Amino acid sequence: MTNSGVAMTSTVHRTCPLCEAVCGLTLTLDDGGRVTSVRGDRDDPFSKGFICPKGASLGKLDEDPDRLSRPLIREGDVWREAGWDEAFAAVKQGFDRVVAAHGRQATGVYLGNPNAHTMAGTLYGTPLIKALGTRNVFSASTADQMPKHVASGLMFGHPMTVAVPDLDRTGYLLMLGANPLESNGSLCTAPDFPGRLKALRARGGRLVVVDPRRTRTAALADEHVFVRPGSDAYLLAGIAHTLFAEGLTDVRQRVAGLAEARDAVKHFPPEAVSRRTGVPAEVIVRLARELASAPAAAVYARIGTCTAEFGTLAQWLVDVLNVLTGNLDRPGGAMFPKPATGSAGRRRTYTVGRWRSRVRGLPEANGELPVATLADEIETPGEGQIRFLVTVAGNPVLSAPHGSRLDEALAGLDFMVSVDPYLNETTRHAHVILPPPRVLQSGHYDFALLGFAVRNYARYSPPALPLDGRPSEAEILARLTMIASGLEGDLDEFVIGQTLARAVGTPGSGVEGRDVAELRAALDGDTGAELRLDLMLRLGPYGEWSGEGDLSLRKLLDHPHGLDLGPLEPRLDELLNTASGLVELAPPEILGDVERLRAGLESEPPDLVLIGRRHLRSNNSWMHNVSPLVGGSNTCTLQINPADVARLGLGDEAEVRSATGRLTVTLEPTDTIMPGVVSLPHGWGHTAGGQRVAAEHAGVSANVLTDASTLDILSGNAVFNGVPVSILPTGVITAH
Ligand SMILES: Nc1nc2c(c(=O)[nH]1)N[C@H]1C(S)=C(S)[C@@H](COP(=O)(O)OP(=O)(O)OC[C@H]3O[C@@H](n4cnc5c(=O)[nH]c(N)nc54)[C@H](O)[C@@H]3O)O[C@H]1N2
Ligand SMILES: Nc1nc2c(c(=O)[nH]1)N[C@H]1C(S)=C(S)[C@@H](COP(=O)(O)OP(=O)(O)OC[C@H]3O[C@@H](n4cnc5c(=O)[nH]c(N)nc54)[C@H](O)[C@@H]3O)O[C@H]1N2
Ligand code: SF4
Ligand SMILES: [Mo]
């Protein structure tokens, strides 16, 4: 308080860490460090003041009284708060005991989605995995975007070489399985995605949305096409078929496999795929012609097309279409961002299936095994059975396919440690929970998301509040890494030393031949994470040490609203990392899987299938504990077409059954969903009690119904869309 009795306030500018849109926020804090207001940062050159209800609630979320501030240790059913040293000692004991008796393959790790939204997740996740020395590596990626990585890896030679639609310059956007008006976009970092879509239409461009639901995004579009869940690969193959058949291709890259790609889609003429997709043949033909004739067009597909049986084939076909129409790597088409911390380096040719999972023999992708088989690996006895599990920022009990089975499996572990701010459905099985500090106590840089941005841009947010004796999330993960490796020392200095040694030894690098110690001494940063960020920025393509720019941590700190680094530019030549040096249009792994697609063409679609959806005021499983965000339209209901309600004789509630489970759900009849399709949002089913507001809005978990035995074979990705279900009025007893 000042002498006049007026509370002191301070203003901080930060990137919102809650979704992939990386909006700049301006927060006002009182002298106790409490958030008194949150606004969009108008001076941010990328987000220009945009904010959504989640960003506006960042203060409430960050100050949630249910967030843990000290470690919890569980003994039997009893939880108690503990000091940090005691908690780490308990983890070490649990780890050493399991490894001594069963070896390192008895350990496992699950990394959840927020690892893509914290500096710690990016900088310390890989060292932790290496230190564990296990093949039991799982993450939310195999419940999400792994098909995109696999398709990109096979076509361009690196799983992170992902093309994004050049949203601000395209004249035609074909969007499948995405609803950015609720999600704010994914694998396409674009603050104010809704505004950018409106701008596309205002400049005379055309937006076509393909979705089994008439979403808010579809309502804004020029055209909405209903599609049967799980059938996008057929639709895209039908479009590719038309381009070839009508001589509409205009390939501008140096490609391999054009003839093979043409052969592969030969079996999918529009008339044949129409029955499977529910899209009339003439619409498929017209979409192909529109794509080919638009001055610049992009095909963009997201979660609805990834978490499906033919996820990788769909992602492959997306970029096949971008190539065939001459739109890959050109302004207004599908382009490759140039992030300030550098693109993934060259490495040996990309491949999948370098090893297989122990129980089901499922192929590895990107060094990970499918989360759909995590429960198998915990439950099945034998050498390599997982007995010690680390989870970081994940809630797989609610997010993994057939999560209810995983719930039971986790209870059988010898030892589990979770790095998470909440006691929830997953962390309740841990023996130790290590809570990260508040968002405002953490530095923030979007290492991963800025690699998918529709404009090149960088922004760093230093911690706004002191740590008050708590370890940062980086320190928590570094300590776990040390426990697992048995080594001592400073992980950051080790990584910095290695990186610098490589850089000075690389001919043509901006620091070739320079002295490592001198470069190390020049780095800025108050923490190891900041030093590493500075190093990556300086060595990156705009960096002070690249020979081409002047970017560094210091410069970002001098620009608290962020720095615009310009529109996307063609750069595929620089990124291509295939053995042939060409864009691979028909990788053999993909061609092998096309047979599976062909076989499915004849199969009879199920009568009723389940899909997911997202709500604007939600975020996966962990944002239901903030009162202003829950209730109203953000509730867990089953959307169903009124025709199906009538046909099945349903009331307000119904029982949904799948091959794996059953749920009683509240119905939301709406003609925005196709007949034969029902939709449950994911991330509900709050039963753990550690989140008191969420418990009042518990809902049910869609992943009681999803089936872990069906996968996208190539990527190991879970299938959440197109799950066969039956629906009965509640109270009906059936024999089985
Ligand atoms: N049926 C169905 N299932 C789905 C999906 C679907 O559409 N339908 N979507 C899938 C997708 S796309 C994803 S990404 C996955 C998500 O799967 P998960 O990542 O397993 O689940 P989240 O709900 O995102 O849980 C995030 C966890 O991180 C914690 N957390 C939040 N912030 C932090 C932090 O800063 N540090 C740490 N250490 N922890 C933090 C939260 O408390 C929570 O426990 O779910 C997938 N599951
Ligand atoms: N508000 C909010 N924002 C979020 C999240 C959140 O939970 N809430 N989660 C974040 C995460 S982890 C992710 S991965 C992104 C996801 O971002 P998006 O990919 O935009 O995800 P959704 O909003 O679920 O939109 C997917 C759409 O696919 C449709 N769909 C379902 N099945 C099919 C199908 O077979 N084919 C086609 N063509 N469409 C289908 C659904 O009806 C839905 O409208 O959102 C992120 N942002
Ligand atoms: S759109 Fe995403 S990044 Fe922007 S304010 Fe909302 S939650 Fe935050
Ligand atoms: Mo996700």
Describe this structure in words.
By secondary structure, the protein is α/β, with parallel strands linked by helices. Among the domains are: 166-331 and 572-598, Dimethylsulfoxide Reductase, domain 2 (3-Layer(aba) Sandwich), CATH 3.40.228; 606-729, Barwin-like endoglucanases (Beta Barrel), CATH 2.40.40. Helices cover 32% and strands 16% of the residues. A seven-stranded mixed beta sheet has the order 5-4-17-16-15-6-7, covered by helices on one side. Strands 28-21-25-22-24-23-29 form a seven-stranded mixed beta sheet. Strand 2 and strand 3 (35-40) form a beta hairpin. Helix 5 (146-156) packs across helix 14. The longest helix is centred in the first third of the chain and has 19 residues, at 84-102. The chain starts with 8 loop residues before the first strand and ends in a 7-residue tail after the last strand. The model has no long low-confidence stretch (mean pLDDT 96).
